[in-house]
C-alpha cells in the first residue's frame, strides 16, 4: 500500500507539472487516483488508459466540463467532482454503469442532470451548494438512490417528487428557503433528515426511525421518545394483566 500511495503522489506531481501528456503505461491496474486542488481546466485523454480505476477524485479544480476521458472509465464506482465549475454533465456519463457515488457539490448546476437516471446503481448523490430551484417530477425513477444531499441550493418549496422516493435513507435540505414541509411519514426508509437553516416554524413530521436536524428538532425528538416510552409502559402493563400463567399447565 505505501507503494500505491507513492505512486499516487508521483502521478499527482506529474499531472501538476507536465499535465500533457500523461505517461501512464504500466498503470493498467491502478484503482484510485486523487488529483484534487490542482487548478486543472482539463485532463489528458490518456487518462482513459487507466481502465482499472474505481475511485477518481478531481475536486477543487477548475473544470468547466467533465473530461471525455473520465466517461470512458467504466469501472469507476466513486467519482468526486466537487468544487469545480460544472453546469451540466455530458450524456456520455451514462457509460459509467458501475457508478455508486457521485459528488458534484459546489458547482454551478441550475438544472438537475437527468443523465443520472441512466445510472441504475447510483446510491449516493451529493449535489449541495449548487443553484437548483426545482427537481424534475420524474426523479422517482432513480430507485437505487439512498442518500441525497441538496443543501445550499435555491429551493423555496419542498420538491413534491421527494415524497415518492421511498428508498431514501438520508435527505439533506439544509440551507434552502423552504418555509413549509409536508409530513414525511411515508418515507419509511428515512433515517436522517436535515432541514436546518430554512425559514420553518415547526419541524416536519417524520417516521419513528428518522432522526431530524433543524430548528425545534431536539424538542420533537424528546417528545417522540417520551411518547414511545409511555406506549412501551402501557404495553408492558397490559401484558402483565392478561398473562397470568394458566393453572392447567403447571403440574405437567
Ligand atoms: C473492471 O471490473 C471488472 C469487474 O470487477 C473486472 O473483472 C475487470 O478486470 C476490471 N477492469 C480492469 C481493466 O481492471
Automatic annotation (TrEMBL):
Gene3D superfamilies: Ribonuclease Inhibitor (3.80.10.10)
Keyword Nucleotide-binding carried by entry: no
Gene Ontology cellular component annotations, sorted alphabetically: cytoplasm
Alphabetically ordered keywords of this record: Leucine-rich repeat, Repeat, Signal
Transmembrane segments: none
Span of the signal peptide: 1-21
Stretches for region Disordered: 224-252
SUPFAM superfamilies linked: L domain-like
Protein name: Leucine rich repeat containing 10B
Organism: Seriola lalandi dorsalis
Source taxonomy: Eukaryota, Metazoa, Chordata, Craniata, Vertebrata
